[in-house]
Amino acid sequence: MLVESLQMNLYSYSSLLGRRIVKCEPNLKYYISQSLKTNTRNIAVFASSSEPNGTSISVSGAHSSWSSPICSDFPISGCMEQVMVEYLFGRKKATEVAHYVWKQVVQKGDAVVDATCGNGYDTLALLKLVADKTQRGRVYGMDVQNSALESTSSLLDQFASPDEKELVELFIMSHSQMEDIVPNDMAVRLVAFNLGYLPGGDKKIITKSETTLLALEAAKRILAPGGLISIVTYVGHPGGREEFEKIEDFASILPVESWNCCKLQTLNRPLAPMLMFLFKK
Known about the structure:
- The protein has 8 helices and 11 strands.
- The two termini are 23 Å apart.
- The chain is of the alpha/beta class and 281 residues long.
- The strands form 2 sheets. Strands 1-4-10-11-9-8-5-6-7 form a 9-stranded mixed sheet, with helices on both faces. Strands 2-3 form a two-stranded antiparallel ribbon.
């Protein structure tokens, strides 16, 4: 089977890396596919490492049959296996892996939410995924810091066309308030979180577990079937470990009938960022 073949390949890669160790849990499934009743798009998730050493990936709710979209009409050069191998060898960051996964979920004309704009790189990536000539796509971006929205706006000025920029709405507010800015009849395909503090900003201003949990509850309500909540979380700053644990608890109790949840975690670099995907069937 393809899953077994991928597992063997990953073990082979780890043997070449010496100290890099890939731990694959017994119930691991590498593919997360949408229910045929709701959507035909697929999301592929593989076990590997973005850091110089190994990774553990956990998947909850992996009971059904899975199908692979790999390299089929993939909108970038290469394919997901290549991305994850580069992640394994330390040539891709967690955020880059997240962007590749988004491309398996988001289509032109979709509505998406950047719950933490930061310096705007996720906002720009999401915009490029939804923008087309129909002008139907929408990116709703938010951040509590005005400097973050200024950086995001500046980045869009540099790399987005005037027509593309019309698809973006930026709000200075907490991610817990996302339901206030997304229209009630809008089906959201993806909600992206990049937590912690603003790179280059005040490290004392961080996302908090209380508001992040409220934001995840809101994201769960507005997300369309076949949609994804993508989370990059950090534990190296004060409050980061608590926030990660709260998110992990949140994801762990989502019903397996309607959600598949996975986590990529470095085994021997405990302060490395962690990547989580919560997929709504």
